[in-house]
Structures
1.
Amino acid sequence: MSADLQITPLNALHRELGAKMVPFAGYDMPVQYPMGVMKEHLHCRAKAGLFDVSHMGQVILHAPGGYDAVAQAMEALVPVDLLGLGAMRQRYGMFTNDAGGILDDLMLANRGDHMFVVVNAACKADDIAHMRAGLPGIEVQEIADRALLALQGPAAEAVLEAMVPGVAAMRFMDVGIFESTFGELWISRSGYTGEDGFEISVPEAQAEPLARALLAHEDVEPIGLGARDSLRLEAGLCLYGHDIDTGTTPVEASLSWAIQKVRRADGARAGGFPGAERILGELQQRAPRARVGLRPEGRAPMREGTPLFAQATGGEPVGHVTSGAFGPTIEAPMSMGYVPQALAAEGTELYGEVRGKRLPVRVAKLPFTPATFKR
Amino acid sequence: MKFTEEHEWLRVEDDVVVVGITEHASEQLGDVVFVDLPEVGTEVSKDDEVVVIESVKAASDILAPIDGEIVEVNEALIDNPGKVNEDPMGDAWFFKIKPADPSQMDDYMDEAAYQAHIA
C-alpha cells in the first residue's frame, strides 16, 4: 500500500476478509474478495451484498433559512428541482459547468431543516470547493467522521429490518435517521446496483461492528469494486470520469430524466444553473449525440475506448465505448457509449474495433437488467 | 512439464506441445469470460500473440512459447471460458503447437524453478 493512500474505517476488515486491495480515487479499496467478481455480482442480485463506499463524500448544507434556503441556492449549481423535493426524500443530480458539461453526479436529500449530499470520491475536494464558492450564505460541512456502507439486493430489506426496525417501510429514494445499537444511522433506500437496497451512513467507530453484524447474516457477502462496476453497468448507471465528465452534457448522457419540468425552458424556475442555455436547448432540439447501451453480438467484451464504426470496413469512428465489461447476470458482454443521434435507435447495428477487428454490436435498451426498486 | 515466465505451462505430448496457463495465472486473471483462439494451421513465431483471454478485469494475451504450427485448439473454451478458472492445469489447455525447433523448449523452467519464480 502506498503511503499517500487514505483508508476507510473498514480497511482492516477488508484485509481480514481476504480482499485484494487496489488504489481507487486516492483510497486503498477492496476490488474483490476471495469469492471473485463474477460470484460476488451474482450473489448481490440473488441475495445481498455489502459494499464499503466510505470513500464517497458526505456533506451537510445548512442555512439560517433552513432547507428551502439551501435548495434555492443549490438550484444555481444543479439543474434539479430541489425546492420541490419532499422532506426526507432524495434525488439524483449533477453539478454542471458553464459549457453544460458535468462536474460530478451526486445524490441530494431534503433532511427537513438541511440538505445532505453524497458526492463521488474522486471529485470530493473539487465539489466542496465548488459549493463553498457557489453557495453564498450556506454552511458547507464535510462529514469526515462517518463511514458509508451500501447493502444491496433482494435480501437487503429483511436483513436490515431485523437490525434497524422501520427501514422496510421506506420507499425507493426515501431517507431516514434511525437510532440503533450502532449509533445514529442515516439511511437512504437507494444504491447503485439496480437492486433494491440501502445506503447507510454510520459513525466511523461503529462502522466495523455494523459491517460485521450485517456480514454475520448468511445472505450477506462483501462485494468489491469489481462487481460494483459490473452491477452498475448492467443497471445502465453512469460512472463519473468514464460515462460522464466535463465533456458530456446531461442531455447527451441520456440523463434528461433528472432535470424536472420546473427547471426546463417552460418551467416556473427555468434555467439558472451553469450551462443552462446549452442544456435547455438540447432538451428542446435533441443533443447531437447520445449515450446508449450496446450489446456486442459475439462474446468479446468491448471495453472503454473501443472505437465504434457505422460500417464493417472503412470510414471514421462515429463514437466510442465509455464503459464495457462482461455482464454476469445477462451472461453476455455489455457496453455503454456515445453515438450520433441518427445511430442511437435501439437495434442499430454498429461495429466496435477490438484488437484491429470490427465486430458487430447493437444499440440496446438500458438498463440491461431490470431495476427492482421498491417504488 | 515446463513453465514460462509469462505463466504458461507446456506439456510435451508425442510430437506436439500442449499449452495452457498456470493456476497462479488463472487466479491473477480472475473469472475468464472470453477466449479468442488462433486458427488451426497458423504458423507462429515465438512471442507472437496467439490467444486473447478476457477476464472480468482485463484482456491479456498468451504468447507462442516456441516457433511452430498450431495443430489443434481447445474449442470447448469458446463456449465455456470459465473452465480456465476451474481446471487451468488440465482440461483448459488452449492450443497444441508442433515445434519447428524442439530445442527451444530447453529455455523454459521446470516446476521447481517456476514455483520459486512465483514465490
2.
Amino acid sequence: MDVTRTEVADAPRRARSGNAARLGLLALPVAFFGVFFAYPVAAIVARGLRDGGVWRLGRIADVLGEPGIRHVLWFTTWQALASTALTLLVALPGAYVLARYDFPGRHLVRAVVTVPFVLPTVVVGTAFLALVGRGGLLDGLWGVRLDTTVWAILLAHVFFNYAVVVRTVGGLWAQLDPRQEEAARMLGASPLAAWRKVTLPALGPALAAATLMVFLFTFTSFGVVQILGGPAFSTLEVEIYRQTSEIFDLSTAAVLTLVQFAAVGAILAVHAWTVRRRESALRLVDPALTARRPRGARQWALLGAVLATVALLVVLPLAVLVRRSLDAPGFGYYRALTREDGGTFLVPPIQAVGNSLQYALAATAIAVLVGALAAAALARRDAGRLVRGFDALLMLPLGVSAVTVGFGFLIALDEPPLDLRSSWILVPLAQALVGVPFVVRTMLPVLRAVDGRLREAAAVLGASPWRVWREVDLPLVRRALLVAAGFAFAVSLGEFGATVFIARPDNPTLPVAVARLLGRPGDLNYGQAMALSTILMVVCAVSLLLLERLRTDRSGEF
Amino acid sequence: MLLSLDDASVRFGARAALDAVGLQVAEREIVCVLGPSGSGKSTLLRAVAGLQPLSGGRVFLDGRDQAGVPAHRRGVGLMFQDHQLFPQRDVGGNVAFGLRMRGAGRAEQERRVGELLDLVGLPGAARRAVSALSGGEQQRVALARALAPRPRLLMLDEPLGQLDRSLRERLVVELRELFHRLGTTVLAVTHDQGEAFALADRVVVMRDGAIAQSGTPLEVWQHPADAFTARFLGFENVVEATVAGSAAVTPWGKLPVPEGAPQGPGTLLVRPVGVRLVPAGEGLRCTVAARTFRGTHVAVRLRPQDGPLLEAACPLRLAPETGEAVGVEFDPSEVLVLGQGRPPRTP
C-alpha cells in the first residue's frame, strides 16, 4: 500500500517539475514573439479593420471581391507553384551530385549555391535586371529581354531557392546508407526500381519539407517581384506594400495580411507535420562515407551539367553584378561610396556597412538567445503537443509579411513602456524575428541527437545538472550554435522588408542603401548600388564559407 | 553493509521493473546480478545510482538513506553498457572527468590518469581520441573513468557485453583480479552466466524485477533454487515429477533421486552429465536428435519414446551419431529436486 501511495504522489510532481522547466525555458521566446511579433501584427490589423471601436469584418468580403485583388491572389499562387516545380526540377540533380559525388571544389560549390539564399532580395532583383533586363547581358548578345515576362521572376526564384533544395534534400541524401539500395539490388531490383522503392521513400519527408519551404518563400516573395515584376505582376506581399506605403489603404492591407497569414499558417502546419515524419528512424551514416568519385561518361556528364547549371544560374548573375560595379574606371563606384553626396544620404553610403554589421551582430545575439532557449525546450523528450505547436509558430515570421511587421513596429511600439521608435534596438529586433526560425531549425536536430545517457554518465561522475549542461551538451552543440549564429547573421544582414520601414534615414543598412540608390536616377547611383551589393555579397559569402567549414554532421533544415 | 536495498520498487505505469527488492552488498564484495533481459537488472543499478527515482522502499549507502540525494552526490561509479565515453574529449579527458568534478588539481589529475591507464593496460594513451579506440580499449577507458574518483561502490552494466568471446573471457579474469587487488566493492549486472560466475563472489539471480536466488557461484550452479533459475542457467532436463522414497515418477519413467530428497510433487533437474548413454536395449530407449560440439564434450539431444527431449553430455569419442538408437540411465547424484520458487507472473 505504501508503494502505491508514494507512486501516486510522485508521478504528478515529476510531471509538474518537467513542465516547470519547460515553461521556464519557453518564457523568454514566448514573451519575445508576443511583444515583437504578435502584438505589432495584431495592432496593424486592428488599425485597418476597426473603425470607431467596431470591427468591420465586412471589409474582408469587399476586398476579396475586387477583381484586381483576385488577380493578385491568383498570380501569387500560380507563380509560387511554377517556381517551386521549376526549382525542384533544376535543383534535385544538383542535390544528388553535391551529396554523392566527390570532386575537387565540392565544398566551394556548396557554399556558392548558398550565397543567393542570404542575399537581399533587392540585390537578387538587381542582378537579374542586369542580366535579362534592358541593356543587360542577354539584350546585348542576342537582343533577348525577359524583364517584362514572368520568366525573370521564375528564374530569380530558382536562383534564390536552389540552396534550400540542395541543403535539405542533399543533406539527407548524403547520409542515407548506400547499402540499403545495394540490398534492394541484391534482392533483384533494377537500379531505377531500387532508387524508387528505397531511396525515394527515405528522401520523401525531406523532399516534402523542401518543397513547402520553397513554396513558402516564393509565395511571400517581395523584393524580386517588386523589381522584376513591373506593373503587370504583383504578389500579395508587393500588394500589401503598395497599399500600405503608396495608397495608404490600411484596411485593404490588413485584409491581405490576414489572407497571407492564413495561407502561410496552412503551409507551415503541413511543413511541421512533414518535419515530424522526417524524424522517423532512418539509418544515417557519415556523409564522408557515401560520396565517391564519378565513374563513367554518364556520371561525368551529369556532374558537368550540374556545374554548368550552377555557373549559368548562380554564378553568372552574381558575376554580372560585380562587373557592373566595376564599370567606372579605378573603382570609381566604390570610391564614391565613401563620399557624402548630400542627396541620397545624410552620411557616406559606406557607413551602411558599419551599420549593417552592428545591427546584424545585435540581431544575431538576440536570435541565438531566443532560438537556443526555444530549441532547448522543444528538444526535451517529453515535449507535449502544445510545445510542438509552438515549434510551428516559431516559423511564422518567415512567412508573415515583413512589410506588415515593420509597419506594425512603428505603430505599436510607440508608447511607454515600449516606446522604441527612436531606439536603435528596433532594427535588430525585427531582424532577429527572421533569424530565430533558422537558429531553432539548426539547433533542434543536434540537441535531439545528444544521448541522454551521456548526461547520466556525467552525473554519476559527480557533475551537477548545470555542469552536465556545460560539460556535455555545450561542447556537442557548440558547432551547431556557431552555424545557427552564422545563418542568423547572414539573414539579418539581408533583411529588407521590415528594415526599410524602421531604419532611420541617417542609419541605413546595406540593403536599404542599395534600394535607395536604385531608386534614384543616374549611372553613378546605379553603379554605387552595384558596388554596395557586391560588398554585401562578399560579406555574406565569407561568413558562409566559414559556416561550410563548421557545418555539423547532422543536417539541419537549411 | 556498504549497500542495502530495502524493499526497493520501481514502477513504470502498471509494470513493476523492480518489485520490493532487498539486497545487501558488503565492503570489498563482488556481487553479480544475473537475469534475462527485461528482468530489472539495469533498473536496479539506475536506482542505486540515483538516476531512477524509487516508487517505494529505500536505498542505503554506508547506512545512510539516499532518498533525495541526487546522482552526482552519491559517490558511486557506474560503467554503462555501451561505455558512453564523452566523444569530444580524449582518453585522458574522459578519465579525469570525475576528478575535475571533485575539484582535483591539475597535477593530481594527471598523476591519477597516468596511474589508471597503466592499471587498465593502456599506458600513454591519454591523448588518443576515443573514436580511434577499439571496443576492448573503450571498455578499459570506461573502467578507468569509473575508477578514477575512487567510488565507494562501482557498478557495471553488462561490462563485457559488446566484446567478442575470447576478449571477454580474458578480461573477466583480469577484472576480478583487479577488483580484489584494489579492494573495490562491485555490483555488476549481466545476462551471461559465464561472466557472472567468473567475476562474482556472490551471484544474485533476478526474475521479473524480483530476486529469485542468491548465493556463491558454486551454490547457485549446484543447487538452482527453482525451475526458472535452472532453465536460465542453461539446464534443459527440467520436468515435473512426484517423489516417493528414493525414486521419482517422471515423463521419462522412474528415476532414482538422492537420499533425503523432499517427498511429493515437485520439479526435477537432471544435469546432462547425469544422463549416461548405454547400449540400445538397456535403460530408457532414445534416438539421437542432434549433437552439438562444445569443445570439451558433446551435447547430445535425445528423443525418448515418451516425455520431453533429454540433453546428455558425453565425451567426444563416445558421442553417438544423429539418428542412432541408444539407451539412457540416470545417475542419482546428478538428479536434483528443485524448490517451487514463486509462480511465474502472468503477463
